[in-house]
Amino acid sequence: MFRTVRAPHAVIAFLIAGAGIGLLGVALFGVIHAAIIVPIWTSLLGGIPFGIVAGMAMGWALYELRTPGGPGGEGITPLAFGCLLWLTLLPMGLFGAMIRAAGMHGANDSWEVVVESMLAFGTGAGAGRILGGRWRAGLALGTASLLLTLTQAGPIPVMNSARAASLFAALGVVYVLCGLALGSAASMISGKKSF
User: Fold this and answer.
1) Tell me, what DSSP letter sits at residue 145?
2) What is the C-alpha separation between 14 and 30, in angstroms, rounded?
3) Model confidence, pTM
4) Rounded-to-integer distance, Cα 8 and Cα 152, Å
5) Would you give the end-to-end CA distance of the chain in angstroms?
6) What is the pLDDT of residues 139-185, one digit of tens each?
7) Which of these ranges, 5-9, 20-24, 32-36, 132-136, has the smallest mean pLDDT?
8) Helix and strand numbers, DSSP H then E, in the chain
């Protein structure tokens, strides 16, 4: 059985591209939050380090998922990757909505954060394992989903208002744009067409 050896500099290109995409994601989140809810420009500065780390995790996840290995034998495209990131946050968001609907949401309930974090990581890890065909791909996508959850400060309370639900929907567009930009940036940095 032969193993494919990937150049070590390729993952570095994805990590660097991811750091930049993390900054883009923070800026785009600020734009959609200002357009849909209220401007939060000064609060976004504190999110920059989280965005960079989450972006690097996105870069690692896309690197792991871009190569064949899953059930279909084909790697994931940047467009599908952006959609997948958003979809991995749905179980966490549904849990948050159920907790609020049941009246169980509280300001100091750390158990919610633990369950939401586990859902984000578990969903990402499961999807990454299935699509990537390797546990390393699952670990990478699970980590990216968890860090995105932490960067956006948990699930968006979609039951609070139509505007909050619109923000969550718009976030899906942000993840798709960031996935596409990540694929392009990684290809430019590495000097090779990655997709």
Assistant:
1) H
2) 24
3) 0.89
4) 31
5) 25
6) 999 999 999 999 998 888 888 899 999 999 999 999 999 999 999 99
7) 5-9
8) 8, 0
With beta carbons less than 8 A apart as the criterion, state whether 83 and 142 touch: no
Q: How confident is the model at residue 1 (pLDDT cuts 50, 70, 90)?
A: very low
| Backbone angle region of 96, left / alpha / beta, with phi > 0 → left and psi within -120 to 50 → alpha | alpha
Give DSSP secondary structure letters for 19-47.
Answer: HHHHHHHHHHHHHHHHHHT---HHHHGGG
Domain boundaries, the chain: 8-190
3-state secondary structure of 8: helix
For 10, 55, 148, 185, the CA distances from 193, given in Å and listed in that order, are: 11, 20, 26, 10
Residues 78-104 pLDDT 10s: 999 999 999 999 999 999 889 888 888
Average pLDDT, the chain: 89
Sign of CA dihedral 174, 73, 143, 108: positive
Orientation of helix 78-88 relative to helix 162-190, angle to 10°: 140
Nearest one of 121, 172, 54, 118 to 129, comparing CA atoms: 121
Structure tokens at 123: 């969903």
- Written as six digits, the tokens of 83 are 């959609």
Q: Are 141 and 59 in contact (CB under 8 A)?
A: no
Reading the block at residue 160, the tokens are 């609070």
Closest alpha carbon to 87 in 135, 133, 131:
131
